[in-house]
Amino acid sequence: MVDGLGNWDWLRLQLLLPNPVLLHLSATKPPQSGFQEDFLGWARSPDRTFSVRTAYQALRDSSVQSANAVWKAIAGFRGQQRIKVFVWLLAKEKLLCNEERVRRHLSSCARCETCGAASESIYHIFRGCPIAVAVWNGLIKRDKWVEFMSLDTMEWIRGNLASNSSFAIDSVDWDLRFGAILWSLWLRRNAMIFDPDNIDLLAVSDRSLWLWKEMQSACALDGLARPNHESRADSLLSSRGSLRSSRAVARWVLPPRDWSKMNVDGARDHSTGLAACGGLIRDHEEFRIFVDPPSFIIPLLQVDCSTDG
Ligand SMILES: [Zn+2]
Asked: Which residues form the Reverse transcriptase zinc-binding domain (predicted)?
């Protein structure tokens, strides 16, 4: 395929290859007689030979560290526990989006109920659907928009939870806001499918904003507020450590003024199969009661308020 002068033999190649390949070939230097013959090599070793040691290093350096980073970021999430578990499911791509429901033969239609797109994937719910795009738009830095929209799910979650300033214009407690937006998008999507007649008209951005503020207040009360310049993952892990030590003795603590605390419990009788639950809601100076069923109100009234909930 090379002529006597060391150039590509275009007369022969034109007969064998299509034009796009010829154009690509023209930008490549032809093989020379002094060149070593091409062979497949292992990029992790300088001499291109494979070894278990370099393969193990490659594994540790990339996928394992990346996966560990996202789980640590989720574990350190300061918001509500149910949102933390939800984000964990999202990272594992275990949410039952319509695409997944069709794959499991739970549904025959993968369409997005919000915008009518043919396939509602996890990506579509949180980044592809017009509602999601409208929520993120204005919150994400312009120069980071393409990266924000194209990262794979795990890296996307890690990038937003572990660093408040990677993508967000307003970096104040972005990890909480990110979680609040994900949760609000999911609630809105579920309402569209399962309860369209009673869908909350509150916009996703307004709902997430309210949730974000609530979580900020709760974090401030729990002493989990952190300076924004601090590494989020590191600060959260250290704050969790201090929490563990402070929880060595658990007891019920009076909530601060303008806050209420709810303690619930339930039980089931194996012989009859009957179950019941009840609980107490107490503010900083008195308590109110909710029970289910109402006949449990007397036993609950006898609960000593000083005991643990
Ligand atoms: Zn959609």
From this structure: 50-136
